Amino acid sequence: MAAEYIWRNGEFIRWEDATVHVTAHALHYGSSVFEGIRAYATPEGPAVFRLQDHTQRLIDGCKVARIAIPYTAEQLDEAIIETIKRNGHESCYIRPLAFRGAGGLGVEGRKAPTEVIILTMDWGRYLGQEAIDNGVDVQISSWRRIAPNTMTSLAKIGGQYVSSQFITMEAKDNGFAEGIGLDVNGYISEGAGENIFVVSKGKVYTPGNWSSILMGITRDSVITILNEMGYEVHFENMVREMLYLADEIFFTGTAAEITPIRSVDRMPIGTGTRGPITKAVQERFFAIVSGEQPDQYGWRTLVR
Predict the structure, then answer these.
(1) Which residues are catalytic?
(2) Maximal C-alpha separation, the chain
(3) What is the DSSP letter of 209?
(4) All domains of the chain, ordered by start, with CATH?
(5) For residue 274, which of 130, 111, 135, 82 has the smallest C-alpha distance?
(6) Among 159, 222, 163, which Cα is nearest to 190's?
(7) pTM (predicted TM-score)
(8) What is the pLDDT of residues 69-94, one digit of tens each?
(9) Measured torsion, CA atoms of residues 25, 28, 33, 37, in degrees rounded to the nearest 10
C-alpha cells in the first residue's frame, strides 16, 4: 500500500520520514483540507482522472477554511504528476492534503504554518472488488448530515469527516458495508463518503446541493454520462422510502467509483442485483478512464 516517496512542501521525502509534530493544529482541531484522486492504467500509461477539477476544489476548500495555501492549482498538478512518476505507479490513489502545522494550541490557528503534502498509494475498490458487480448492503444512519450554516458540505475539510466516521462506524457495527445519512430536514443526503443516485420508473434522481452533499467530481461525471445516454437527472428532495421502492441505487465517489446498492435496511432494491442503468454507466465510465474509449470530455491527464 505504501509508496516510496511523498511530496511535502515542495520536496520529496521518503514515506517513513513523513511525520508531523504532535502539536500540529490539524491534529487537535481538524484544520485540514484534502482531496481524493485516482490515476488509472491506460495503454498510454497512467492517467489522472479530472486532475484540474480536484486541485481547484482543494484550493477552493482552503479558501472556505481560511487556510492559506502557498501553491497554485497548476503547481499542485505538476507535483501530483511528479509524485506518481517518482513512485512508478501504473494506477494509484492520490491524496493531496493541506493542513495547519505546529504553532500553538488555540482554536484560532491562522498563525500556524500551512503544510502541504501529496501521497500516492495502491488502493483497490473502496467497498470491495466484488461490490462493483454484486453491490453492497447499506443502512439509513441514525446520524444526520451537517446542517447548513453549521459547517460547509462543499469543502473537504478534515474535521467535518467525524460526521462520516459516525455514519460508517455505525453501519459496520450493524453488519452493513456503508451508511446513508439524512439531511437536517430528514431527506436523503449522501453516504459517509459517497454521493447517491436513485433510478425509479426509468427516471434518475440525486439530491441537490441543498441536501448537505459534497458536489462530487465523480457525481458530476456520472451526470454527464447519464445525459449522454439520454437520461435527464432530477435534483430533488428524496424521502427515505424512495430508496426502498427504487429500481436501482448506486454510490459514486473517487474511492467508491460507481458501486451498486443491493439492499437498504435489509430491503432488496429492485431484483437485489446490479441494474441495467447502473451497469451501463459503469461500463462507460471505466471505458473512458481506462483509455478503452476516446476521452471526449478531457477527463484524463497523462502522467508520461
Answers:
(1) 156
(2) 56
(3) G
(4) 5-121 (3.30.470.10), 131-289 (3.20.10.10)
(5) 135
(6) 163
(7) 0.95
(8) 999 999 999 999 999 999 999 999 99
(9) 120
